[in-house]
Amino acid sequence: MDGHFVPNMTFGAPVVSKIRPYVARPSAAYGKGTFDCHMMIAEPKRWVREFQKAGCDLYTFHYEAALTSTAAEDPAGESSAQTSPREMIRYIHSTGMLAGIAIKPDTAVDVLWDILANSNTDEKPDMVLVMTVHPGFGGQKFMASELPKVKALREKYPELHIEVDGGLSEKTVDQAADAGANVIVAGSAVFGAESPADVIQALRSSVNRRS
Q: Which of 96, 110, 154, 198 has most Cβ atoms within 10 angstroms of its Cβ?
């Protein structure tokens, strides 16, 4: 979060770099230890290499930000050109990271069809993130209204990694898993629990029962 794309600010690449030495890198794509960095920022291309150097494995940017941001490739750089979702995905892949693309509740899933149908694998996302809250604040209520997007994605792309983020807990995860989500992000439900490990296991089990 950068205080621009969303009102809040949160940790950046320096924090990722401090945690990385304590978590072994995944031995395979999407494996245990994958650092999936969800970039709720207005200028996502500027920070790709900073997060790659910090230890990010999967860089997830917002579709909405990629439509309006510059093509500058470092935090202090300047560019008169604009980037695009496809260019973002290609650039992320060029650094060796996986690429995720996120959509906010106000964005229709239809915007993703051309991107996912691209025959150029360098420009196809490895994961789609459907936000089930408005990005920027933790502890929000789960928006079941976003699950038809997940269902539409799963029906069209059975093998796609589909992530949901926002309001996920033991009470809501089954709805998301039933719709087709196989990657679950939970903050408040885990860190506010008496036994975070039990909550993580419950969330994982919900997805695994449907895979």
A: 154
Distance in angstroms (rounded) separating the CA atoms of residues 60 and 111: 16
Q: Are 97 and 37 in contact (CB under 8 A)?
A: no
- Count other C-beta atoms under 10 Å from residue 189's C-beta: 23
Query: What digits encode the pLDDT tens for the residues 1-31?
Result: 555 665 656 778 999 999 999 999 999 999 9
In the block, which residue shows the tokens 């539409």? 152
Question: Which of 75, 50, 63, 30 has its CA nearest to residue 135?
Answer: 63
172's CB contacts (< 8 A; 6+ apart) are 142, 144
The separation between the first and the last C-alpha atoms of the chain, rounded to the nearest angstrom, is 32
Cβ-in-10-Å burial (0-12, 13-18, 19+) of 99 comes to buried
Strand partners, 101: 61, 128
Taking the C-alpha atoms of residue 189 and residue 132, their distance in angstroms, rounded to an integer, is 14
DSSP conformational letter for 136: T
SS3 readout for 25-41: CCCCCCCCCCCEEEECC
pTM listed for this prediction: 0.93
